[in-house]
Amino acid sequence: MQPFHQDTIFALSSGRLPSGVAIIRVSGPQTRFITETISDQVPIPRKARYGLLKNRKHEVLDSGLTLFFEGPKSFTGEDCVEFHIHGGIAVVENFLEALAEFENCRLAEAGEFTRRAFANGKMDITMAEGLADLISAETESQRRLAQLVASGAQRDLYMNWRKKLIQARAFIEAELDFADEDDVPGSVSEKVWQEMKVLSQTIEKHIADGKRGTMLRDGFHIVIIGAPNAGKSSLMNLLAARDVAIISDEAGTTRDLLEVKLNLNGVATYITDTAGIRESAGKVEQIGIQRAWDKAAEADLILYIEDLSAPIKLDMSDFKTEIWKIGNKADLITDTKTDYNFIISTKNSTGINFLLENLTKFITEKTSLQNDIVPTRRRHIDLLSQCKSEIEKAYKQENLPLELRAENLRHASQYLGKITGDVDVEDILDVIFSQFCIGK
């Protein structure tokens, strides 16, 4: 997406039609002229004006509110206007057609309002990403995390770290260039390297918290795996408290991945039922089994379930993910099994509440944040890891010349700049802003 700032853009910025009220947003150089034409005058900035709204032929489009925002004190940094009109489908379509009749005025692309805000210095990339997460937040924890990022707290933290890196590099280069001058203390680099070691450790902890933040943003993923008829689908239905999966005594009933979303203590939790793992399976079932293994490899937690009355062991040794071994069909046995994390019966719901309580506790612990400001995207974590690596190269490689170690600090500051957009990141802007809906 390439924004053309000579164009004035417009879009429906409110929810799905029909609705009680629809908000149409306009931004760009033609905004003032459009406002004067449709609303008969430009209202006092930030004060709503009610009246008839007309097209260029002076035909009445609707009656409603006009709210004008004069640039640069607007969301996009340009002149903006919002028309609050009735939310009928025909009313909105007619209004949008009237806007399209103005010269150099077109329908906005996805995320274009936010991209103009970024281009005009109203926000950095992290704030734009936080805004996108805020719009899509479905749980309280997701909302809180997104709100903090959108407020600029994450940007301020990274800018502070980048400032420290630039300052450290300046001290190193000063020692290189002016080592013979009386006003530049010698061996200042020793203090710099100690500060860089502390900064590296701080970033390392921040990255660890970021993995928790990613779970909050993207959800916690649980995969149920086991042999056919072990009770996987029954367990999923009980955890979801509704019939999500088909239950049958016939082996191989579940052939594809079935996923349900739960809200466990404010954390979006995705539970996936998979095909039963067995060797003598048909071609279609084999595809389902492979998908089961692949999905389990990506999970945050695996629930490995076995039939206590006729256990079929699966080799789970290759998985690095935490695995809870669950024994099902406790109603069919009398002896106590000790090599399971949980004993349940999906037939009479024995042990299900205890399992769910422990799942909720486990997920809460895994997603609890030591610090509210955390990286929330894989992009952030990757760039922070590269930044940390460059800092470590700088302070650990004592045998290298100072100018090379200073270059490592320069690379580290660039990686931080790529997170916030202070360094050219045109290649990722299209991806970020395309995640927004039209009108945002």
Largest sheet: 6 strands, mixed
Shape: flat
State the name of the first-level CATH class of the largest domain: Alpha Beta
Compressed to H and E, one letter per element, the order equals EEHEEEHEHHHHHEHEEHEEEHHHH
Q: What is the third-level CATH name, the topology of the largest domain?
A: Rossmann fold
Average pLDDT number: 85
- Per CATH, the superfamily of the largest domain is P-loop containing nucleotide triphosphate hydrolases
Could you characterize what this model shows?
The protein has 440 residues and is of the alpha/beta class. The chain has 3 domains: 8-124, Gyrase A, domain 2; 130-216 and 377-421, tRNA modification GTPase MnmE domain 2 (Four Helix Bundle (Hemerythrin (Met), subunit A), Up-down Bundle); 223-365, P-loop containing nucleotide triphosphate hydrolases (Rossmann fold, 3-Layer(aba) Sandwich), CATH 3.40.50. The protein has helices at residues 31-39, 89-100, 112-119, 125-136, 140-150, 153-177, 189-218, 232-240, 283-297, 352-367, 378-396, 402-420, 426-433; strands spanning 8-12, 19-27, 49-54, 60-69, 80-87, 105-107, 220-226, 258-264, 267-273, 301-307, 323-328, 342-343. Strand 8 and strand 9 (267-273) form a beta hairpin. The model is unreliable at 181-186 (pLDDT under 50).
What would a concise description of this structure say?
The protein is an alpha/beta fold and 440 residues long. Helix content is 44%, strand content 18%.
